[in-house]
Design brief:
Blueprint: E1 2-5, H1 9-21, H2 25-51, H3 60-92, E2 99-104, E3 107-112, E4 122-125, E5 131-135, E6 138-142, E7 148-152, H4 159-168
Antiparallel strand pairs: 1-2, 2-3, 3-4, 5-6, 6-7
Amino acid sequence: MEFIVDLQPEEYRRAMLWHQFASSLGKRVNDWLGWAILVAVPLTVLLLLIFVPGALSFWFWPVALLALLYAAYSTLFIRRQIGRQAAALLQTNPALAHTHYHFHGKGMKLTSEETNEEANGVFFPWKEVERVAEINQSFLFFVTDENILIVPKRCLTDENAFRRLLRKAGKIGQ
């Protein structure tokens, strides 16, 4: 199965956000806690200031500030950083704009569409692909935990045939 992937910055951003915040139960819980702290700390401070202003000790403020900073970093700052990376993606890596993918029984070969020469290609045997995740609009191929190949579903001519190929390779479940 062969096709061209023209990765768009929004697809990269969505895949990286999923990887950072939702790819495992621990990451989802951490994200939920970050958002809960981000909402709960200002709300708690406001309610305490309104209803019990004399009850706040000196130590409450540094703890509340640290919790708020952690929540802001782990939710807002990282999302913004991923968005910036996505915006700069095609400028720093123009080869990602059009990559030729060739999937077969032994693995997958990627070549730049610009040159499309065999010598410039990269081959990944299936045993080097740690896992494959299917999200709403893409398939993510984890070569390592941090190196991900993104295949948007819109680039596939037959999504079901692609899933069958991945099942045959043992990379997604039945």
